[in-house]
Design goal:
It is a single chain. The protein has six helices and 15 strands. It is an alpha/beta fold. The protein has a domain at 4-148. The strands form two sheets. Strands 1, 2, 3, 4, 5, 7, 9, 10, 11, 12, 13, 14 and 15 form a 13-stranded mixed β-sheet that branches. The protein has a two-stranded parallel sheet with strand order 6-8. The relative contact order is 0.08.
Length: 294
């Protein structure tokens, strides 16, 4: 029995009507999917007429290509937005898909007027990932999803920027991934989580680490650092940082492109880690300029 159905991501590009029609037919034929990756389009798109409506009444609405009452036991859903310039409220009818444990949203512009009092919470949500999104003020709603432990923000903008988001202040997360990406203002600072006691895994870009490593929480077990092609593996910074996390940090991972000059520093960094009983790994990826490292 088919439980997982994944459509290729096409953020801000939409999908050929013939392919989308075929995909909807396959979804309809399935009895009870547990995982779905699909593109969302605007409600007036002919190929999606009559399906589940997403978003606020007074805003352009999205539709999920699922007939009403079907696949209500979805555990994981990944939605890609076909329209780059449309603002929406949280693009999932959370009151319908109450069993969701994992959510990925790509390319959505979530309005700042989201109301955590009216948007039903997801009691089983463990992980949410934002890719190229405007997050609005969803942190107040996420704070009410009591089982949320893993937050991933990639190439996105998180409001408000004048204070630490409530979700981080609550210290309920066990894993946090943050990439500055396209945000050109105060977006995330390590000092915001400096007093955390429950956070075990942190992924940040090199710029963020370089500015705030002195505030790393002592509870961290794993730290992953993302380096752009133009950013050097600054051994001096790591030599200063590692003693401060010795005894708690077990693994340090450097994530970089396979063409990065820093790959030549691998052996030296591994030896440096051994001095502090920290395992050092190089996660060598293959990306073109501008692609995400998450």
């Amino acid at each position: 029995m088919l439980k997982i159905l994944l459509m290729p991501k096409r953020v801000w590009q939409g999908c050929p009507q013939s392919l989308m029609t075929l995909f909807i037919q396959v979804i309809t034929m399935c009895d009870s999917l547990e995982e779905l990756q699909v593109i969302c389009d605007l409600e007036d798109h002919q190929k999606l007429y009559g399906k589940v409506v997403l978003g606020a009444v007074r805003r352009p609405q999205y539709v999920l290509p699922i007939a009403a009452g079907r696949h209500v036991n979805l555990r994981a859903i990944a939605l890609s937005n076909a329209d780059q310039n449309t603002w929406t409220k949280f693009p999932i009818p959370t009151g319908i898909y109450t069993q969701l444990e994992e959510i990925t949203l790509s390319g959505f512009r979530i309005s700042k007027d989201i109301d955590p009092d009216t948007l039903p919470t997801l009691p089983r949500l463990r992980l949410i990932r934002y890719e190229s999104c405007d997050l609005g003020q969803t942190d107040l709603w996420l704070l009410r999803c009591k089982k949320l432990r893993d937050l991933q923000i990639d190439l996105s903008i998180w409001e408000p920027t004048c204070r630490p988001p409530s979700l981080l202040q609550a210290d309920t997360l066990e894993s946090l991934q943050v990439s500055r990406g396209s945000a050109h203002y105060r977006f995330f600072e390590i000092s915001w989580i400096g007093g955390a006691q429950n956070l075990r895994s942190l992924t940040v870009d090199w710029e963020t680490l370089q500015k705030g490593w002195k505030h790393l929480p002592v509870c961290l077990n794993e730290l992953c650092v993302i380096l752009k092609d133009e950013e050097l593996v600054d051994k001096a910074t790591f030599e200063a940082m590692l003693p401060s996390v010795e005894g708690s940090l077990k693994k340090l991972m450097l994530r970089l492109n396979k063409t990065h000059e820093g790959t030549k520093e691998k052996e030296g960094m591994i030896e440096l880690g051994k001095k502090h009983s920290i395992e050092v790994e190089f996660d060598v990826m293959s990306f073109s300029r501008g692609e995400s490292f998450f």
